[in-house]
Amino acid sequence: MDGDLDDFDRRLGERLKALRTKRGLSLADVAAEIGVSYQQMQKYEAGQNSLSVKRMLRIADLLVVDPHVILKSVFRESCEDGLYRLQPFQRTGERHRILKAYFSLPEDIRLAVWHLVEEVHGQMNRKP
C-alpha cells in the first residue's frame, strides 16, 4: 500500500508542477503563498512528501483550478491533461471569478441574479 501512496504523491506532485508552470508561477511564489519553504514545496512536487488536503486546496485556489480536476487526473491511468476536457471558461478560471463575484453581492441582488439565470435557463430548455 505504501508503494501506491508513493506513486500517488509522485503523480500529484507532477500534476501540480505542470499546472504551476502552465500558470507561469515559480516554485518560490507558490511556496510563499501557501506558507511553506521552497524546499518543502520542491518535495511536494517531487512526490517525496505528502500534501495535506488543506494545502492542496490552497494550491488549487492559487492555481485557479478545481481540486477535483487535479485529483481526477492523478487517479487516471493515462496522463492526459484533464484541463482540456473542460470548457474554455473553466480553464481560464472564469468559474472561480464568477462564483467569487456572485457571493460578494448583497443577498437581494444575488437572489435577483439567481432568478434571472434560472429563467433564462428554463427558456432555453423549453421545447418549441
UniProtKB/TrEMBL annotation:
<protein>
    <submittedName>
        <fullName>Transcriptional regulator, XRE family</fullName>
    </submittedName>
</protein>
<dbReference type="InterPro" id="IPR001387">
    <property type="entry name" value="Cro/C1-type_HTH"/>
</dbReference>
<dbReference type="Pfam" id="PF13560">
    <property type="entry name" value="HTH_31"/>
</dbReference>
<feature type="domain" description="HTH cro/C1-type">
    <location>
        <begin position="16"/>
        <end position="70"/>
    </location>
</feature>
<keyword id="KW-0614">Plasmid</keyword>
<dbReference type="InterPro" id="IPR010982">
    <property type="entry name" value="Lambda_DNA-bd_dom_sf"/>
</dbReference>
<dbReference type="GO" id="GO:0003677">
    <property type="term" value="F:DNA binding"/>
</dbReference>
